[in-house]
Amino acid sequence: MQKTTQQIIVGLGERSYAIDIGAGLLTRTPLFNALPQQILLLTNTVVGPLYAEQVLDQLSQHKVIVHTIDDGEQAKSLVNYGAIMDTLIQHNFNRDCAIIALGGGVVGDLAGFVAATYQRGVRFYQIPTTLLAQVDSSVGGKTAINHPGGKNMVGAFYQPQAVLIDTECLQTLSDRDYACGLAEVVKYGIIADADFFTWLEAHVQELNARESAALTYAIQRSCQIKAEVVAADEHEQSVRALLNLGHTFGHAIEAAHYDTWKHGEAVAAGTIIAAQLMFQLGELTAVEVTRIENLLQSLHLPVRAPLMQLEQWQAFMQRDKKVQDGTIRLVLPTAIGSATIRPMADWQMIGEAIKAMSTSDD
Ligand SMILES: NC(=O)c1ccc[n+]([C@@H]2O[C@H](COP(=O)([O-])OP(=O)(O)OC[C@H]3O[C@@H](n4cnc5c(N)ncnc54)[C@H](O)[C@@H]3O)[C@@H](O)[C@H]2O)c1
Ligand SMILES: O=C(O)C(=O)C[C@@H](O)[C@H](O)[C@H](O)COP(=O)(O)O
Ligand SMILES: [Zn+2]
């Protein structure tokens, strides 16, 4: 059967770029158009052995330096950022070089921040290999590294030149990391598309089985929504904040538990807290909260946060990038298919929602 490629454009004027989606794209030529001679391929110790050779085969006419980082969220660090800068400088990379990210969101976020800052900005390409990176982090230009005090605290908005999504890469992903990507997919349904949410509910089995047609549609629809939101508000002055549903809570969980909670898992637990908060405010029905909870659960995602003191939640949440004049602003679902961003100072109410949706201690 002929393999097809679908293309979605992120419309940003002169900086517009294409997201190509298809099975087996890594081994089809060319990966990207008009690549320069000097290329730094950033990958990690898990993805490199799986896919770097396929990429290098396509780049045999270029001078490619492979830089490999450790696996895991802790690798999105200032130390690794410095080490990559050392590599670029040691090899005399100039402003005409390109950085290619081959990996999940950790590799992509770090590579993008390097690209945004090396010699004040060099070309950047994304080859996302996790579901989460394919549906979310490779698109839209949020690049960052973490700080012990919070997630993505140092970063830049810096768009890639192109994104290449090979859906076949997902077959080697662990069940846990696959589920993490589905958390961000569910997010798009909640904030922007009730029909897509209903479609997800109806295709849980196919999605859990990683069936090609369902998976490709979920990736494509997610990228379409993300591309539209980013094109409308690249620098998160308004509607882009909705992509942060569940993240103010989720980032607090991650920052407190980097070693045990993954990003997608923390987003799922954070999403259900946001839904519960809207239920308490009388703006979301019990049926809607249950639908969100059931969908996340059926996709093997956690729907209860770990036990943490309210003060700890508060400390991390106050560092959220959406805080304005000391007041946190939360993304809250107003229905399945729409969400709003709202300043919230009522910590008693927030604490009640967190408690209701945290693991019980009895
Ligand atoms: N920039 C953005 O807009 C954005 C959006 C969402 C998330 N993020 C960030 O992305 C990160 C999470 O990304 P993630 O979930 O991809 O995590 P990750 O990059 O740590 O990848 C998850 C795991 O899967 C492994 N892996 C990657 N591809 C694989 C493959 N094809 N086969 C087998 N194993 C594979 C990785 O080595 C890792 O162990 C977080 O740091 C989060 O903050 C950024
Ligand atoms: O693209 C966006 O905008 C997002 O918020 C996507 C999120 O899924 C992603 O986790 C992002 O990195 C969060 O950014 P932050 O600004 O809250 O650090
Ligand atoms: Zn996210």
TrEMBL record:
This enzyme's EC code(s): 4.2.3.4
Keywords, alphabetical: Amino-acid biosynthesis, Aromatic amino acid biosynthesis, Cobalt, Cytoplasm, Lyase, Metal-binding, NAD, Nucleotide-binding, Zinc
UniProt pathway: Metabolic intermediate biosynthesis; chorismate biosynthesis; chorismate from D-erythrose 4-phosphate and phosphoenolpyruvate: step 2/7
InterPro entries given in the database record: Dehydroquinate_synthase, DHQ_synth_AroB, DHQ_synth_fam, DHQS/DOIS_N, DHQS_C
GO terms, biological process: amino acid biosynthetic process; aromatic amino acid family biosynthetic process; chorismate biosynthetic process
Subcellular location: Cytoplasm
Cofactor remark: Binds 1 divalent metal cation per subunit. Can use either Co(2+) or Zn(2+).
Domain 3-dehydroquinate synthase N-terminal: 68-178
Catalytic activity: 7-phospho-2-dehydro-3-deoxy-D-arabino-heptonate = 3-dehydroquinate + phosphate
Binding, NAD(+): 71-76, 105-109, 129-130, 142, 151, 169-172
Predominant location: cytoplasm
Cofactor list: Co(2+); Zn(2+); NAD(+)
Binding site for Zn(2+): E184, H247, H263
Any one of the GO CC terms: cytoplasm
Top-rank taxon, per record: Bacteria
Domain (3-dehydroquinate synthase C-terminal) ranges: 181-323
GO molecular function: 3-dehydroquinate synthase activity; metal ion binding; nucleotide binding
Keyword flag Amino-acid biosynthesis: yes
Function: Catalyzes the conversion of 3-deoxy-D-arabino-heptulosonate 7-phosphate (DAHP) to dehydroquinate (DHQ).
Record-linked HAMAP family: DHQ_synthase (MF_00110)
Similarity comment: family membership: Belongs to the sugar phosphate cyclases superfamily. Dehydroquinate synthase family.
Entry protein name: 3-dehydroquinate synthase
